[in-house]
Amino acid sequence: MAQEHVKHVEPYTPQFGTMIPSSFQKFLRTCVVWQLFRFVMINIKMTSLILKSHH
Amino acid sequence: MARLVILGAGVAGHTAASFAAKWLGSKHEVVVVTPNSKWNWIPSNIWVGVGEMSKEEVTFDLAPVYKKAGVIYKQAKAVSINPEGSESIENPFVSIEYTGQNKVGEVEELEYDYLINATGPKLNFGATPGLGEGTVMGEHTVSVCTADHAVHAAHELQECIKKMKAGEEQTFLIGTGHGMCTCQGAAFEYIFNIEHKLKEEGVRDKAKLIWISNESFLGDFGMGGLHFKVGGFVTSSKVFAESLYAERGLDWIIGAHVNKVEAGKVTYETLDGATDTQEFDFAMLIPPFAGVGMKAYGKDGSDITDTVFAPNGMMKVDANYNAGSYENWKASDWPKTLQNPTYKNIFAAGIAFAPPHPISKPMTTPNGTPITPTPPRTGMPSAMMGKAVTQSIVDMINGASEPTHTSCMAEMGAACVASAGKGLFSGTAAAMTVYPIVPNFDKYPGTGRDLSNTTGEIGLAAHWVKHLLHHAFIWKAKLKPGWALIPE
């Protein structure tokens, strides 16, 4: 199965022990429709955080 | 009529001044003392530092804004506080020395009824030999701590890009310049913006990018790390950060105290006690922060600086400064009202207050060198503190006997958006929220934080949030219509 989105990672380096985003995950990061939804969600989350933080 | 004096016009001080003027009106006096003539939206200095924004886009003149708001503005630095007055002046006062307004060097004794210390930090470049002298950055590295520094950084970056286009390889070293630094987030954002810029310029293959930090693990951020839900797991910020670095081909050196900077080379000690060097062509190393060095005097002229300020120069507030070792730390150690315990009409907000202890676990090398990130308290927490202490003071002026509002880092969240690039559809950003900033393991067993409000994600949306914050907060700081509706 093709894995073009995964660059070569040298074994036994710190980089070898990390998560690598899937091609679908990378697609979602720049998919405008999905990101518009996330934009709304992030703003709701941040507003909720602010409201919880003021005493 | 009461007089409120606010020292500093950064995020905390400017927020305090804006709300104080709004709530107190013309019946009372609000005076701001700041050595700067301009306000700076510091988070966007990152974009200035890669040449994507100009200095003018992230700064504006304070004088007209304060004139409009009815705030008395004195371009001066605070030198000392006499919280009991003196033998010749009955009321408490601050000694200030003008840095502008055609009065440079003139000294004034400014009486107050209430005082907010929001001076921010001294950029302590002098703590690391070669990083700079005192508060002045040296010639070997660059900084993005001020808009002017960021303009200089962008110029140096362009020089490197020119060399790479001519075929030379360049090494970029970004991170912290001392074992006791904070503000890793700014350096974190800067390295990703540089990486993005180099890709845009078509020279990424000529660059080696290295992160150097006093964090004991990537993603500590001075908060002992955090956890959030990703892909069905509760994942550590260590995994999140390492994944980001690996994906972009960045190397990292962690648990490092930079102890010397020379032309093109840093020497550093790591937590295992080893000493090593790293060569660079371009280095942006954040300096450690210290208090601005104000003194305090009693009525008889005796030095009471130790009563008002902690040894690092930050102001003592209602924190538990005797918590002892890491194992004994609790969320309740953190200050709530930010009121000075000795002088009840003095408050501190933002970086100027003395934290009870770090949030990250203190670590020391076998040689005895401490390497521990200090707690982050810039940006959103600073603004919330500035507003809360102002609300308390306004209520006290109107008759309340004690502070009515709290702003505790163990009960407050923070949002951090780290961009990579500036275009609306190119580049991405990491958006993180954390609640509370100081983990509370009694209230949130397990990770110490509320997992429904502690989140992290990467994408264009976060990028748009960064743009939104830039414009919204500059609008708010300029006190344009509706400014008070924009939350801190």
Q: What layout of secondary structure does this protein have?
A:
The complex is a heterodimer of chains A (55) and B (488).
Chain A: H1 23-30, H2 32-53
Chain B: E1 3-7, H1 11-24, E2 29-34, E3 38-40, H2 45-48, H3 55-58, E4 59-61, H4 62-69, E5 72-82, E6 93-98, E7 107-111, E8 114-117, E9 122-123, E10 132-133, E11 136-137, H5 147-165, E12 170-176, H6 184-200, E13 207-212, E14 227-230, E15 233-236, H7 237-247, E16 251-253, E17 256-262, E18 265-270, E19 275-279, E20 282-286, E21 289-290, E22 295-296, H8 305-308, E23 346-348, H9 380-397, E24 414-420, E25 428-434, E26 455-459, H10 460-477
Parallel strand pairs in B: 1-2, 1-8, 2-5, 5-22, 8-23, 12-13, 12-20, 13-16
Antiparallel strand pairs in B: 3-4, 5-6, 6-7, 9-21, 10-11, 14-15, 17-18, 18-19, 24-25, 25-26
Helix pairs in contact in B: 1-9
Structure description:
The complex is a heterodimer of chains A (55) and B (488). With 55 residues, chain A is mostly helical. Chain A has a domain of 31 residues. Chain A contains 2 helices and no strands. Chain B has 10 helices and 26 strands. The two termini of chain B are 28 Å apart. Chains A and B meet through helix 1 and helix 2 of A and helix 7, helix 9, strand 25, strand 26 and helix 10 of B.
Number of helices of chain A: 2
How much helicity do the residues of chain B have?
10-25%
| DSSP helical segment count of chain B | 10
Largest sheet of chain A, in brief, is: none
Proportion of β residues of chain A? under 5%
Largest sheet of chain B: 8 strands, mixed
Supply the key terms:
heterodimer; A: 55 residues; mainly alpha; 2 helices; elongated; B: 488 residues; alpha/beta; FAD/NAD(P)-binding domain; eight-stranded mixed sheet; four-stranded parallel sheet; 24% helix; 25% strand; globular
In short:
The complex is a heterodimer of chains A (55) and B (488). Chain A has 55 residues and is mainly alpha-helical.
